[in-house]
Here is the input.
Amino acid sequence: MAAVSPTSQPDTPRIAGDGVPESAWRRSAWLAALPALPAQAWLTGTSRVVVVSPHPDDEALGCGGLIATARAMGLPVHVVSVTDGEACYPDSPVWPAERLRTVRRRELDCALAILGVEIDAIDTLDIGDGRVAERETELAHALAPLLHTGDRVLTTWRGDGHPDHEATARAVECAAARRGAEVVQFPVWAWHWLSPGAAQTPLPGAQRLVLTPAACRAKAAALGCFVSQLHDDRPGTPDPILPPHVLERFDRDFEVVLA
Ligand SMILES: [Zn+2]
Here is the structure.
């Protein structure tokens, strides 16, 4: 997920404060009215799923349930981790970038193992946390050979409000167009700032993919692997990126994709 640090972009007013509480999303008429179908049905006929994640945890937050569902169906899932999320605590002496890089890669491996993704199906590109937009063309070039014709490529929404998420989406669109792969985007930070009371859905083409209890349990367990992003009350530790009120937005029995 990654906080918006000075290295990424100084002006992202949408991602500030505590954001929209999940209690408000539970009352959102437009979210409740989105077309819904079981995740298994949505995945049927897919030859391979590729998830391109800007920071370790975005894949689990945005589509961890879908990944677990795909693996339970026997579908191959490949994950591309664009950055190591090493700049998420830029001012913390507890978390220098090199320590974060090592820890977050390990957390990603742990989370994906729980979701059923094997270690040799994970690629890390080390594009630079907070630097994806400036290296967008390079990212598109790096992604293209990793995609196959007919892949269903999941990534963060191009309007998500975080510069790394949006740049990753644009690079995926570019690479997928070259390879003949389908792009499906999912919101992550948008749940922080979109309006639950909007008159109609602000998410273009949004669908709710309903998860089984087993997929929900796998997703929750996977998110528990990202210990560096969770609340830590030891002295000197920074405010977490994923405090309980943020995690609550990802504790749903469905995931939303923009297809
Ligand atoms: Zn992120």
Confidence is low (pLDDT under 50) at residues 5-11. The longest strand covers residues 49-53. The CA atoms of residues 43 and 70 lie 7 Å apart. The two ends are 21 Å apart (CA to CA).
